[in-house]
Amino acid sequence: MKRISEYFGYLSDLFFYTAASLLAVLFTGRGLFPLASLSLTGAALFLFQRNRRRDGSFSPAALFALGLIGGEGIACLKLSRLSTAWTKETWLSFYLAYLLFYLCYYAVRRTRAGEKNALYPDGEERERRLSFYRISILSLLALSLSCFLFEAWRLRFIPLFTVNTPHAYSYFHLPAIHYFTTLYVLLPSVAALYRRELGRKSLLALFGALCPLFLSILLVSRFQFLFSLFLLLFSLLLLGERLSRGRLLLLFFGALSVYVLITIERAHSIRYLNGIFEMKCHLPIFLSQPYIYIANNYDNFNEMTLHLREHSHGMKLLYPFLTLSGIKYFFTFPLAWPDFVTKKELTTLSILYDSWYDFGLFGVALFSCLLASVSALLHSLSGRNPFGLLFRAQLSFYLLFSFFTTWFSNPAVWFYLFATALLYFAFQRFCLSRGERGEGEAQLGEGRKS
Fold first, then answer.
1. Which of 115, 380, 402, 433 is the most exposed place for a label (fewest CB within 10 A)?
2. pLDDT of the residue at 373
3. What is the pLDDT of residue 449?
4. Global pTM?
């Protein structure tokens, strides 16, 4: 009976989502944009709450609904003149993306049910674990700072101290070196793990948490700032920390202040931005900018479905591996694929853009299924190794901000995941006992048989 009830819950979720999507298409066709937006944003909030209750606060199915479907609902408002009528390929791609993600996620999740997730087992290796955290924090800090100083020396400028240079951060890049410079985004989360293991306040943990803020300001990088902040917040929540409303409000206004400071230092005037956004009605910049950063990505996807004449056959999604491995420097690959956007200044894209660019609707379906399967595996990752939380924090960010860009076609994303994997396996090797690593379980099973 319980299983029947679960299946009925899954079906009711998908029925509600399908009905909301159809209503959004009908309302948009009749020019009732607020109603279309209400249908999809309502579905996003409904699916977020349902999956959050079913699978926990950091349910990938909940976060993906809020990011992808919620963003689609905001885009349906059509507040900018850049927004045009969407093709059937656009509607179908975003509908199928979440539908297949949902089905695959819970199919894989059920096969992983029953695994225990015990965080931080007590044992005699506690001091070894603390030493590992200290070495990790100091190593990441030294690596990021030294690479930042090297880039500043070679390029002879620091973005924060430039004058009337709107794209200073974009110019502040040395091939390969910049990946190491921005590794500081992982520092706050590692500092949070260290603080939790230590059980008290620590100057090193505080410094590790604040250093990314300082470097993000120097680089005038809003993304790096928000990314490191969200990773810290997600890591704290995954660790079981309860943040009071006062602390959350303080964090929000502090983050907003830094965001505004970085935006000012990027030297983009409000008139310049409003000219690009082409809003149908006057909105203050603190509303129009977030709206465009969400909505225009769906319109960029629509532009691609309208004008793409040849698919890239996997080259877009393979780009990070060709870059990080260095293969592209030894062999010739067709990598110069143009992006189709509503305006050349607005280059942000949704998470599905490159999968459709590669293989069309089949690419979107395949990507959604793979993303769901990996999400289910990471969500059930054993908590004996605390660095598993860092994987989950990064995945949560990418799913929540799935409306923003093609995360998994970005070499930096894979570089951060690779760095996290090194920390994970190093911790597994040097800080966990043989039993905690899972080693010896096979031998134990053989002993029982004999």
1. 115
2. 93
3. 41
4. 0.88
The per-residue pLDDT for 225 is 84
Give pLDDT, residue 166.
64
pLDDT at 393: 92
The pLDDT of residue 447 is 40
Q: Are 83 and 295 in contact (CB under 8 A)?
A: yes
Q: How far apart (Å, rounded) are the C-alpha atoms in residues 173 and 22?
A: 45
CA 371 – CA 366 distance, rounded (Å) = 9
Terminal CA-CA length for the chain: 39
Give pLDDT < 50 ranges for the chain.
Answer: 114-121, 439-450
Distance from C-alpha of 49 to C-alpha of 57, rounded to nearest angstrom: 9
Cβ atoms of 256 and 40 within 8 Å: the answer is no
Residues 6+ apart with CB under 8 A from 172: 151, 155, 157, 158, 159, 178, 219
* pLDDT value, residue 423: 93
Q: Which residue has the tokens 């959350």?
A: 248
Please report, to the nearest 10 degrees, the dihedral formed by the alpha carbons of residues 428, 431, 437, 443 taken in order.
130
- As to burial, measured by CB atoms within 10 angstroms (0-12 exposed, 13-18 middle, 19+ buried), residue 270 is exposed
Residue with tokens 């069309």: 360
Structure tokens at 171: 């110019």
Q: What dihedral angle (degrees, nearest 10) is formed by the CA atoms of 408, 414, 418, 420?
A: -70
Burial group, residue 141, by CB count within 10 angstroms (0-12, 13-18, 19+): buried
Q: What is the pLDDT of residue 448?
A: 39
Interaxial angle between packed helices 245-265 and 222-238, expressed in degrees from 0 to 180 and rounded to the nearest 10: 160
